[in-house]
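Quick one: examine the sequence and fold tokens given here and explain what the tokens say about the fold. Here goes:
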Amino acid sequence: MNLVVQAQMENVEAEIVVVGLSRHPENTKGWTEFSERFNGMLGEWTKDISFDLKSLTTYPVLSGSIPRVLFVGLNDRKKLTEDDIRAAFGQVGKELAKKKIKHAAIYLESFQNDNITAENAAYLAAEGIAMGTYRFDDYKTSSNEADVSVETLYLITEEDAEEVEASATIGQVFGESVNEARTLVNMPGNILTATALADYAKELGEEYGFETDILGKEELEELGMGAILAVNQGSVEEPRLIVLKYKATDAFENPLALVGKGITFDTGGYSLKPKDGIVGMKGDMGGAAAVLGAMKVIGELQPEKNVVAVIASTDNMVSGNAFKPDDVITSLSGKTIEILNTDAEGRLVLADSVTYAKQLGATHIVDVATLTGGVIVALGKDKTGALTNDEAFFETFLEATMETGEFVWRLPLTESDKKRIRKSDVADLNNSPGRDGHMIFGGGFVGEFAEETPWIHLDIAGTSDADSPHDLGPKGGTGVMVRTLAMLVERMAEEQ
């Protein structure tokens, strides 16, 4: 999407102009001048327009260079938040896609208030429209419909063009990176295998100059990654450990580790999922997708913070070789684990991944995973659950969530919880203490391997996939946490 900033609408070759409309539109800065561009018709049109937030109304323009105007309801302009504007532009993106618009213009001042500057509005416009126009290229053979997307977005503002364009470019990078993560989540497990995911990561590394290391089964065996290998035992597909290093400094010091769960399909193993619960398990690599999406943002924006991405990828299958309840395995850390539930496999691959991240020198760790159904029971499908062992680190992370509007709720991890995770007659840990407090025990298990390293666990089992269309996208993968992880890197770069 080509971004063009102009002070005036003259010579704008757009098919539609997008205008934010709040109650008492005549109070909008520049409204009189803007109305004159449409022969004074705006006042007449607005009599029949809904001011409800995100409502959309299109009018044909009988004269002038732009044939249509799309009004976006903003309700009370003074109360608008960045989340409101982002969601509104997500809806605009959907409408532009529906109308097959290639060239659109946005009257940027109509989306501003005392708290939302032209730069903010430009960022949110590019980000929201990028996410709103997302469509997964599925595998249907019956559609011959031409692919039409927004090619040019004109941002009409008298503010500093260079700053507005820079802000919009960043928003576009965030939105498009979310979309790449969505596509990974939406791909079926027979196509997106561990090898295919590793190939995607390798291409990402080549594009942005990341140091890339892809470890196969033999290398995992040599290292002693018994937790990952146990999950992979039942599969005919070999596992992969994916490592991407973004070097902001010559010496790779004090990196933040982004650790993603990359289970490309989860049957539950011998703790087999029910027939209804097994559908959709192609998305059990949503954490890996989030990390790779964040790495794309990092590659584009080049923050001054070293980052290492670590992703363990395999499927979790049933066969004569599969691991089973009552098995005892030895992790990379040397800690032994009693397997009580083979469907609690995500925490096992995260255990070895976190340990490996520490061996690579990570001073802070964030793991992100579609880990438990328990987080959905506790928080619903619209909230990401979190655990942490470091208050200051989590405070920085929360600041990042405020920037992106991705809601996260922290749950407690107590000494009593840790004792239950460590309770086993035959091993150092057990991988499934029970159903009560399931999200806490799942994430807390990973924390046993983070140990004293500042660590945040994010359970996106509810938020990584949408059951129905929403403001910022269609049904399916959401790309949740891509923007927040990338924003966290920016915040940490500013703090160091």
The chain has a mean pLDDT of 94. The longest strand covers residues 256-266.
